[in-house]
Design goal:
- Residues 168-227 are annotated as: Disordered.
- GO terms for molecular function: ATP binding; tau-protein kinase activity.
- This protein has 227 residues and is mainly alpha-helical.
- Strand 2 and strand 3 form a beta hairpin.
- A three-stranded antiparallel sheet has the order 1-2-3.
- It has helices spanning 21-24, 31-48, 58-67, 78-87, 98-102, 129-137, 142-151, 156-164, 181-191, and strands at 69-73, 207-213, 220-224.
- Helix 2 packs antiparallel against helix 4.
């Protein structure tokens, strides 16, 4: 499957619990909208520890996805809930774009002055003599190296050249947004509101959940004994 802007896809692929409603309906779909739904399922799962839509059979799962109702754990922050509402929307035309999501408050928490932006792949330096000499020292033929780089063949020579250019740095040590500390440390403190681990109930414990519909903006609050 290869997505081309303006054309639709028709292949049902991926794990069913993460599939968007239009896939279950057998409709042709736009790639980005389906990806946004899947990202919403992933976010919900990472924050809550359970899937927003699940079922013992594929048929049951399909019914729940098409119904679009899921529960928000009591410990989830309002900002995170608002972001989920942008992801998990039954109508793909009303689902938020990735550009909109990158501007979301929760996504930029702690980085308000450095709003998340699309990643731009830097131009590769394909004339690094140090790496070329390293490849020669490894036994590669110089002519083969130069030909692979000039033609961007993406063969073993090209791959090894790129690997030699990777910097061995710890992303958590440079304060960059690529570090995992954003999601693990900062957000854990914000979303759990500094509640100790022992006080955060798992989805199998009794607690208050907000019941949300992917087609509605009005949540209802009710107690639940399950996830």
């Amino acid at each position: 499957n290869e997505f081309t802007p303006g054309s639709k896809l028709d292949t049902f692929c991926g794990s069913p619990p993460y599939a968007a409603p239009e896939l279950f309906q057998g409709k042709k779909y736009d790639g980005p909208e389906v990806d946004v739904w899947s990202l919403g399922v992933i976010l919900y799962t990472l924050v809550s520890g359970s899937l927003p839509f699940d079922g013992s059979t594929l048929r049951e799962l399909r019914e729940r996805v098409l119904r679009g109702k899921y529960r928000i754990p009591f410990y989830m922050s309002t900002d995170c809930e608002n972001l989920l509402r942008k992801f998990l929307v039954l109508n793909p035309a009303k689902r938020a774009s990735l550009e909109t999501i990158m501007k979301d408050k929760w996504m930029n928490m702690g980085y308000e002055d450095d709003e998340l932006k699309p990643y731009i792949e830097p131009m590769a330096d394909l004339k690094d003599q140090k790496r070329i000499e390293a490849l020669v020292a490894m036994g590669y033929n110089r002519t083969d190296i130069e030909d692979s780089l000039a033609q961007s063949r993406y063969d073993d020579v090209f791959a090894t050249y790129l690997l030699l250019g990777r910097k061995n740095t710890d992303p958590e040590s440079d304060g960059s947004r690529s570090g995992s500390s954003l999601s693990l440390r900062n957000i854990a403190g914000n979303d759990a509101n500094a509640v100790p681990n022992s006080a955060v109930q798992s989805p199998t414990h009794r607690g208050v959940h907000r019941s949300i519909s992917a087609s509605s903006t009005k949540p209802s609050r009710r107690a639940s004994s399950g996830g």
